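Internal tracking record. Fields below are filled automatically when a chain is submitted to the structure queue. Please do not edit lines marked as system-generated. If the sequence contains nonstandard residues, flag them in the REMARKS field before resubmitting.
Queue: standard
Priority: normal
Entity type: single polypeptide chain
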Amino acid sequence: MLTAQLAGAITGVVLVVGALMFLTTTGGQQRDAQRDLRFYVARSSIESPPPCVWMFAQDRGSLRGTPSAPADLPVRSSMRRVANGGATLVERRRIGGIDYLIRTGRRGDMVVQAAMDLRYQQQERQRLYLALTVAELAGLLAALVTGQVLARRAISPLEEALRRQRRFVADASHELRTPLTRLHTRAQLLARRAATADIDKDLRTIVSDTRQFGEVIEDLLMSAQLGQATARRELVDLAAVVESVAEAESARAQARSIALEVRRDPGAYLVLGVPAALRRVVGALVDNALDHTTPGGHIELTLDRTGKRREVVLTVRDDGVGFDQAKERLIFERFKHGNAGDGRRFGLGLALVREVVDSHGGRVSATGEPGRGAAFTVRLPSVSVEAAAAR
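SYSTEM-GENERATED OUTPUT FOLLOWS
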């Protein structure tokens, strides 16, 4: 529609300009022709008139004219009319298939007639029409190209907004499922332990899960803002994040008879990032491992440092259904299905992992084998203790 509107606007401009040029050119040709004929009738030589003009004179019954004049000229009726006392006569006639502008008047005692061939004026107007046609076609072509470019630029933000909206809905449906599952599991345990001393601990855990539930909603709303980087980076101890997620998921792992273990050396594993987003990364990896590990299985979260501590490496390894290594790229795409195990969806949560890790300047990779588990490795730029103290 934008292209059509632009083409219509250019067409309208060309038509207006063409109409003005046509009126100006036609009016100018008409005025110039009448002025010239008036001069020719009054003063020009009968035998040697200007090009494209034929002259005739009648004096006392004798008629003379320009040599090689067309056989159908002069217009004798007009000459007789003026000879009989009529006024100067200006007329346009088509004679022998040719248009002429004819002026008949008196020069002293003579009746003089000048006929101008209008074919050259018509040819000039045809050239004008051709130029306007070419200009119109060029304008329409330019409108097509320009309209497409402008339309894409105009629609691109709308497409991006729609894409973000769809992704937000998908992210929300996936991300909210994990804390809701935790709350459901905690509530079941709380009901079972209502008469024991463990109730206080379960209540505190439910409060913690509820807080994380709110953080998920806040993060999703923040991510839905178009193109605005509102989240501020800060120093994050990835070890603390891993421990927190492992503790939060321990009840679900226990309910499914899955061992959940964290292995790391003492000390801080500092990275620069958004705490809530990094928590989403660890949570999504653990959630994926729980979904694909059968009862009685084992999940191990390992933290390490590499390259003179320039990278913090988190590995989430399970001994579950695994996946085909040839499908590694696909499992980080949204809503993709694995070919191993029960075919649960890999893509949404893991796609979020890749997006967050990429935005933090890191890398994520996966290795696996059907029936023998999988390992997901996240590498993030580390921050030294000295650099952290300087900040």
